[in-house]
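Bumping with the actual sequence this time:
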Amino acid sequence: MKKILLASALAIAAIAVYAFMVPNANAAATTTATANDEITWLSWDEAIQQADKKPKKIFVDLYTDWCGWCKKMDATTFKDPAVVQYINAHFYAVKFDAEQKEAVQYRDHTFQFINAGRRGVHELAYSLLDGRLGYPSYVYLDENQDRITISPGFKTADNFIKELQWIGGGHYQQQTLDDFIKKAK
C-alpha cells in the first residue's frame, strides 16, 4: 500500500512540475508588454550623454543600499504604471547610489567617494543635494542640466505623479507645486 501511495504522490508531483514547465503561448507577448512596465534607469554618464545629444530633463533618484524607504519606493511608487510611463516619456532617469565608490567625471570635474563620517558619501550626491543628505531624495535637472529642485522623502504614486507633471510640464516656472496641485483638483 505504501508503494502505491508513493508512486501516486510522485506521479502527481511530476504532473505538477510539468504543468509549470510547459511554455505559455502568450509568454512572448507578456515579456514584450512588461518590458515597458519599468522605468528605464540610466547611469549618470549615460543620461548626460543622451541629454547632450537630445536635450531632456533628468530625474535623479539618490538612494543608498541600507535605506528602507528607498526600497519601498522601488517596490511601489517606481512600479506604478502612470509613474513609469511619465518618467520614461519626460525624463532621462538616473538611479544614483549616494555611497558608490566609482568616480564620476562631469563638467571638467572628477567627483569621488569621500570616506568620512559613518558611511561616507559620493561628492556628486553631496553636490546635487547641497549637503542635505537624506534618502531617498530626488533631484530634477532641466534640459541644460541645471538643477530645478530637490525633493526629499518617500512619496506615494498619487502624490509623486503630480510632482512629476509639475516638473515635466514646465509648470514649476510659473507656480509652486502646492498651487499646481490645487489647480489640478
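The C-alpha cells above came from a reply further down the thread. Helices lie at 2-21, 27-35, 44-53, 68-75, 81-90, 123-128, 157-168, 177-184.
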